[in-house]
Amino acid sequence: MATASAEPNERECPVCMNDFETPKILPCGHLLCRKCVIPLWKTNACPLCRGQIFDSPLHFMLIFKVVKIENFVNHLPTDFVMEALVQSARVLAKGTACGTCDANNKAEFICMQCLDTMCSSCHKIHKKMSMSRSHDVESLSSVTPERLAASGPPLCADHGDKQFLFCQDC
Questions:
Q1: N or C of the chain: less Cβ packing under 10 Å?
Q2: Closest listed residue to residue 82, CA positions, set 164, 4, 140, 162
Q3: DSSP codes, 18-51
Q4: In degrees rounded to 5, what are phi and psi of residue 87?
Q5: Are residues 72 and 106 in the same domain?
């Protein structure tokens, strides 16, 4: 499960050994990629602890194809914290190009509010623009995936979508 500090190998699915893609939380608490959970309906066991994944009536329905496995896997909770950590690690990966200009320069900075990576030229412009003047722009080398994930917008615990806050009077 996601921790305060996720080492690179903690962001990897223990089945496919790749970065998590849509990490699903099994009843035992282990995380697996959504695509790695789908084949487990046959054994009905977590590959890490052998804990039961589907309760007996559901497993029976899966065997006799009354319920599609993909539909059930979609109802397993997604670990949005881990998903954000994986996405943040990708953004911070070395060799990232500037996401602001078309010059294909190497990104050296990241805006902690916009989450845009930028080269030194774009950094200077970003700091001069009135709408982004107060933003916290940091060196890519000094930011951790955990810190970047935490600086993003708050996410809905049920859907993982950005929460939008607004005044109902306006």
A1: C
A2: 4
A3: SB-SSEEEPTTS-EEEHHHHGGGGTT-B-TTT--
A4: -65, -40
A5: no
5 part of a folded domain: no
The model's pLDDT over 131-158, given as tens digits with 9 standing for 90+, comes to 998 999 999 889 888 888 888 766 666 6
Q: How many CB atoms lie within 10 A of CB 165?
A: 7
**Backbone region of residue 155 per phi and psi (left: phi > 0; alpha: psi in -120 to 50; beta: other values):** beta
Domain interval for residue 52? 12-78
Instruction: Please tell me the total count of domains within the chain.
Output: 2
Q: Over the range 9-46, which residues count as b (16 or more CB within 10 Å of their CB) and which as e?
A: eebbbbbeeebbebbbbbeeebbbbbbbbeebbeebeb
Distance separating alpha carbons of residues 136 and 109, to the nearest angstrom: 10
Return the biggest CA–CA distance within the chain: 63
